[in-house]
Amino acid sequence: MAKSKKRKAAPGDIATNRQASFRYNLLDRWECGMELQGSEVKSLRAGTVQLKDAYAALHDGEVWLHNMHIAPYAPAARENHEPERARKLLLHKREIERLIGSTAERGLTLVPTRIYFAGRNAKVEIALARGKDVADKRRDLKEKDARREIERALSERA
After folding, report:
1. 68 within a domain of the structure (yes/no)
2. For 80, which of 7, 33, 72, 122 could close a Cys bridge (C-beta 3.0–4.6 Å)?
C-alpha cells in the first residue's frame, strides 16, 4: 500500500498541532499575535512550520513561544532567521495576568494548537492544557476505534 500524501491542515490554517489534543486535555484557548521577522512571514506563507514540540512560557510578564520550527526562507539568503528562536506572543495585559494565575496551578501548561492568517497578520492559538496520563490516552484511542467501527458498519449497511 502506497504512503498517502502529507495530511493537510484545516482550511485557512497554516499548521495545526494534532498531537496536542492527544497529549493534553485542552481547557481554554486564546488567540495571540506573533512578533516575527520578514523572512519568517514569507516562510509561514509557504507553509513550512512545525508545532509538534512547541510550548508557550511566561517570562517577566511576557508570553514567549519556544521550539516552534519555521524553516529558513531560501531566497532570503543572508538575512534569514534562526529556525527555532523564541518568539514573543502579543496579548492584552489582562489576558497575560489571567494566564499567570492559571499556569501557577500545578500541572497546567500553554500549548500552541494552530497557526493561521487573520487578514494579513499571523495568529497563533494557544490553549491552557493539562497533561493526560497513559490510561486517558488508551481510553481515547478505544473510543476513536469504536467510532470508526460504527461508521464503517453504517456505511456498509447503506
Report:
1. yes
2. 72
